[in-house]
Amino acid sequence: MKPPTAAAGGGKGGAVDPSVPRFRCQECRRAFVVVGVDSYAERLPAHAASGNHASSVQGSVMGASRMDNSYVVLSRQNRSQGPGIPPRPPSAAAPHTEPHQPTRAIEGSYIVLPPPAASIYKAPASEGGGAQLTPPSVNSSSPSPGNNSGFHSSVTVLKRAFEIASSQTQVEQPLCLECMRVLSDKMDKEIEDVNADIKVYETSLQRLEQEPYNILSETDFQKEKQKIEEEEKKLKATIEEAEKLYSEVSSEMKDLEIKSKQFEELEERYWHEFNSFQFQLTSHQEERDAVFAKIEVSQVHLELLKRTNVLNDAFYISHDGVIGTINNFRLGRLSNVEVEWDEINAAWGQAALLLHTMAQYFAPKFQYRIKIHPMGSYPRVTDIHNNTYELFGPVNLFWSTRFDKAMTWFLTCLQEFAEFAISMDKENNVPREKSLKLPYKIDGDKVGSHTIVLSFNKNENWTKALKYMLCNLKWVLYWFIGNTSFAPPSGPGHTQSLKNKS
Question: What UniProt keywords are attached to this protein's entry (predicted)?
Answer without folding.
Answer: Coiled coil
